[in-house]
Write a structure and sequence with these properties.
- By secondary structure, the protein is mainly alpha-helical.
- It has 2 domains: 60-219, no CATH class; 220-293, no CATH class.
- Helices cover 79% and strands 0% of the residues.
- Helix 8 runs parallel beside helix 11.
- The model has no long low-confidence stretch (mean pLDDT 76).
């Protein structure tokens, strides 16, 4: 009888114990997060040159394990948040697909699937891109939180302020690809040599999302150069002296990114990248004048 009563009691209290465990984990996560935030803003660390930091790693490789464990935590939280935003984007898949297909003549209704699994892959790709765009600020924050403990308080605050700027650059690149490149490239591709093309959901979504993503990443180049110049890894004079080589490299990258083989669309990719390169030189000069590390 006693055993039956104990089993019944465990069964009745099981939901409360599960709720208590979840509450304790959430409470621990909140306390840990606030502690990391407090350390992020309050702790003052003396910055060390990159060469000195590398020498310490070589002399004591065991110290790398601590940083790898910290990196694992930050990446885990980033992946969890990306899963959440991707699931959220899945709820609005139809609206996102209609928006992506708007540059097409006829919009999303012009897409024709010829394989049974094609719509599933399309849904997942669209949801993942939208989820990444939403999660981008948080992922950038997690990566910076991993780097921040080795920098001074002023440098950490500077990096924190750079996250919204990085988001603006990324969204600006995606907007350029969507409003300028797609409307220019699609008429050429769909009627090349007079051959009419009926786009498939998988091929069009792969083409459009890849273009949006990589152009968005390419637009981050000036910010990356500014940060590298801020920490002394890049000099503005080096960039200005190598501008001819940079244009050749940009031309090759543009040829890889450009969805068509015609010089018009290649120029649409190349010209803003060249402009971003010279903007990077200007930002590098500004970074050197107000170097904080």
């Amino acid at each position: 009888m006693k055993k039956l009563f104990k089993t019944t009691w465990h069964f009745i209290t099981f939901p409360f114990r599960v709720f208590g465990w979840i509450l304790s984990r959430v409470s621990w996560w909140i306390r840990n997060t606030f502690q990391e935030i407090r350390t992020f803003f309050d702790e003052e660390t003396e910055d060390a040159p990159v060469a000195e930091a590398l020498n310490k790693v070589i002399e004591d490789p065991s110290g790398v394990l601590f940083h790898l464990n910290a990196l694992r935590r930050h990446l885990t939280r980033s992946v969890v948040f990306l899963v959440i935003t991707t699931a959220f984007s899945f709820l609005f898949f139809q609206q996102i697909l209609d928006f992506l297909a708007r540059p097409l003549p006829g919009g999303a209704e012009s897409l024709v699937a010829i394989e049974v699994t094609e719509p599933i892959g399309t849904v997942m790709r669209v949801s993942l891109l939208a989820g990444f765009a939403i999660a981008f600020p948080y992922i950038a924050l997690e990566l910076w939180m991993f780097v921040a403990p080795g920098l001074s308080r002023r440098s950490r605050l500077f990096g924190l302020a750079a996250i919204p700027v990085a988001l603006l650059f990324f969204l600006g690149g995606m907007a350029f690809a969507y409003f300028v490149m797609l409307p220019t490239a699609l008429p050429f591709m769909l009627n090349f040599m007079g051959i009419q093309t009926i786009p498939r959901p998988s091929s069009y979504v792969k083409f459009a999302t890849s273009l949006l993503f990589w152009i968005g990443i390419a637009f981050e180049f000036p910010l990356v150069i500014y940060i590298l110049a801020k920490v002394g890894l890049v000099k503005a004079n080096q960039l200005s002296e190598q501008w001819r080589l940079a244009i050749v490299i940009i031309a090759l990258i543009s040829a890889l990114i450009t969805p068509t083989v015609d010089p018009v669309n290649m120029g649409l990719v190349m010209l803003p990248l060249v402009g971003l390169y010279f903007l990077s030189i200007l930002l590098a000069r500004l970074a050197q004048r107000s170097q904080v590390v």
